[in-house]
Amino acid sequence: MIQKIFLTILVVFIPATLSAQTLSFYEAQQLALANSRQLDAQTAAVVAAQELAVSAGERPDPMLKIGIESLPINGADSFSTTRDFMTMRTIGLSQEFTRGEKLKLRRERMAREAALLSANKGLLESEVLRGASKAWLMKYYLEKQLLLLETYLIETKQQLSATTASYRGGKVTQSDLILAQSDVLLLEDQLEVLSREINQANAALIRWVGEENSGRMLSGQPDFHKTQLVFEDLNSELAKLPELIVQERLIALADSDVRLARSNKHADWTVELSYAQRGSEFSDMASIGVSVPIQWDQARRQNRELAARQAKLEQARAERDEQVFIETEELRALAEDWRSGLSRLRRYNEKLLPLSKARQQSALASWRGGRGSLSDVLSARRALLDTHLNILQLEVKTALAWADLEFRLPKESGSKS
After folding, report:
1. Spatial CA neighbour of 140 closest among 202, 209, 192, 190
2. Which stretches does DSSP call E strand in 246-381?
3. pTM, whole model, 2 decimals?
């Protein structure tokens, strides 16, 4: 009976489904990536850092100096630029000659900052893919539960009508009638709760795909029975995780800061060349000079900066080691949930579901043969419904664990369609 009603519902829904635009699992992911303004911001940050990496390796611009020196301000020659032999109109250039090693280190540091921002973008992509995946899966399986409950409700109402007629004819007891009425009310209550959960799931999906796409029917269930992660080579897999790539880039950036701080202990020189013009009866002058900062207190300045950068490097390494432990344990826990879910699903589909169907058929046959009670039939039907619901709830739990595993590596997973 349930199968016939289910087929009837499909016949009603299939034309509408075919005519409506559907939203597949992987399309939802691509929409989430396209709609993410955070990803746009991260892309802009990467471009900015890459541009700065070029300028960081260049020497400072030369300084042009123009002025008047030794201008008299009182007496007969006040404010004259030609009468006093000491007055000079000057023009000069100064250039800081930053050491080549320091320029290279500055360029390298900015390049590593760009690499860190790129790694952060990869981490964000992973989070977007997982978020969109979970939202799609949650709504998809809730809608499957809704269809299942609606199917059972139709049959249960038909059963209630038949039971009511049988009660009036004295064929069943009042207890059987009350039980049939209770089944209808319980199913209606479940449907109300499920409808609210679907609305919440739809609101979560809107965040990723946009409101204009949230009303599309979901289709294209992914295969959650396999994952691209290779658990036999977990160390290699860990190295690919965006979270740990970010940590490695932080270490590289901190290392650049250490080497740059060490390089700052060697001062840069500045060379200045100037030309001074005096009155026509006096000789013009030329000057050349070199300026060098005197690092007279390295113990309190340059050495302190170097020590601070070295401490930051050790901090980054310690945080990386802690992150490796966290990610390892999380991957193992997710893998255990996923594998356990697959094992339980096989047990439900291969053993528990056939037993529930057999129980229902046996109770129905006994009742029709006058050997069983209607309450046994209703109880068996309820047990079969609970088994179907348990399977769907276990499927979504397993699929969510799979999504957490599968989309840790966005570049590989996100390319699917």
Report:
1. 202
2. 269-277, 285-291
3. 0.82
Please compute, for residue 350, the number of CA atoms within 13 A of its CA located in the half-sphere on the CB side. Answer: 6
Assign 96 to helix, strand or coil.
strand
Specify the pairing of strand 63-69 against strand 217-219: unpaired
Q: Under a CB-based contact definition with an 8 Å cutoff, are residues 214 and 21 in contact?
A: no
The Cα 265–Cα 293 span in angstroms is 11
Q: To which H or E segment does residue 194 belong?
A: helix 174-209
Distance CA 219, CA 143 (A): 11
How distant, in Å, are the alpha carbons of 46, 85, 88, 114, 252 from that of 78?
59, 13, 14, 58, 62
- Rounded CA gap, 13 and 10, in Å? 5
| Tens-place pLDDT, residues 317-370 | 999 999 999 999 999 999 999 999 999 999 999 999 999 999 999 998 988 887
Query: What sign for the dihedral angle of Cα 145, 148, 150, 155?
Result: negative
Evaluate if residue 239 carries a pLDDT over 80: yes
Segment 13-38 shows an average pLDDT of: 77
Average pLDDT score over residue span 21-45: 92
Packing angle of the helix pair 25-35, 174-209 (nearest 10 deg)? 40
DSSP per-residue string spanning 134-161: HHHHHHHHHHHHHHHHHHHHHHHHHHHH
